[in-house]
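Hi, does anyone understand the following?
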Amino acid sequence: MKTSKKLSSIRIVIRHISGSKTNQIDEFPLDHFKEITFGRALSNDLSFDPEIDDVVSREHGKVTIDSLEPMHITMHDLGSKNGIYINGEKIENSMELFPGDVVKLGINGPEFQFDVFPKQKNYMKKTKVMETMSPPPKPTKVSESMPIEKEPVKVEKRGVGKETVEKIVIQSQKKTRTIWLSAIAVGLVLLIGIGYVFWPETPEVEVPKLPEKYNKMTPAEIAEANSDKVVYIEAGWKMTYTVTGEDVYHLYLKDGKTYHAAFLLMPDGSIEPWLVKSSDSYKTPQSQLIGGLHTGSGFVVSEEGFILTNRHVAASWMTSYNFPREAFPGILYKIEKGKPVKTKYKVQPQDVFQWVPINAKFFGRGYASAKILEGKNMYLDVTFNGNDLRIPATVARISNKHDVSMIKVELPESLPKVRLKDRHADLKAGEQVVVMGYPAVSPDEYIKQNSQDVFNRNPHWIKVPTVTVTNGNISKVINGNNKMNSNKYFSSFGDVYQLTINATGGGNSGGPMFDADGNVIGIYFAGRQDYNGTKISFAVPIKYGIELMGTKKIL
């Protein structure tokens, strides 16, 4: 590459139009970059958010600076899954870039505008020469010597006698008009008076009541009617080897002087943790148990003790796993001739952020078969609002379609239940909704209990959950499944309601979402935030919960 120009003064400018980096600008001085790589991996010069920009490949493409005099810059596709589009045209392998070009990573991916600063001479895209239009004819100037004819002014001569007569007529007309107006006003007053005396008395009319659909409940009224029906859930879980019942661990191996988490590269290109059972001889003491502890929310849907909540609350092994921070950077191994071989690649969180424990493909020394691993709740406790007693619960049913599950508690008395209503077909953006639950960010409340047990006199403090109430609106109804057959539509979240309710968070998962009539129409399940601090939240339509309460056929 030629270096006759001052490279420090020339830089490539990337203005982000959409995606996780919207409205941000990245600059790359040419004295430091001979090429610019971009993708979801952190090793790229320009890295995209792995969750928000999920259509971007790990190493999606690169920009090369081929020469400076004259300037020649090229965009290359590094075999990305969804392709690269420049000004709406998909490139095959590479294409020359010019200032002002708009680059899109995938048909629905993030966009950015390419530019070079300062502007370089002789570096612009060739354009077609437009046909010039003939200028309009110039107006003819009027010569100063040319005589201009003026329209003669007609002057009407009027005699004094005529003007006097006209003035007399006008005054007479004004006087006559005044007399008539006065007479009309007097007549109207008389008619109003007569009507007041002789008009029949108007009977009182009863104001009709508003239709029931207008009698909406306030958030306070919804909370008062349902506080005893919304429950606090505590869970602890782990993965087990179904053959022997042993616990499953994430293998940590020594690399140099320290231990690092071991990961495996699967044949399909995905990366997952190297799992072993507790009795495996090569399991190290530093290996970590696959499992976790968490809290959530739920609500009673039957007098017999059935409770709806999220799948990730009641069966966490069926949702994306939260790795501990010490698992990264991890060591990556690949399988060669049936044996793991260490690579130089360092595994980062974005490489495994969608791994689900129950879907593990490799276990021990070989590929995992169906049902060889299973999740298990070490405890699953339910506590009612304002109560101090934990009630053991069991998992009753788990949805195959969405983040919904049903659990059950055994109590001798009948429980109050919420009202359910499937409004997915007629729900509109802008409607008021209320979410109830137990967000973990809310301050804890405790009560001191003095034991009356003669064999255990030690007093202790017990956490007493108190339900929270958060109101907002539905900002968007996303019909993921209804349009899945369309090539122009795809929702990574499926059927969901996007909400303006952001004063809540983890722990509120599984809580009910009420409409203004006090019906549960959804289940709160997730929140999302970008790098600018913008927050949105989501709820699952209640129809997926109602499905778990019956035996509706799908074939």
Notes: The two ends are 65 Å apart (CA to CA). Helices lie at 160-198, 219-226, 311-314, 543-548. Confidence is low (pLDDT under 50) at residues 1-5, 126-165, 207-214.
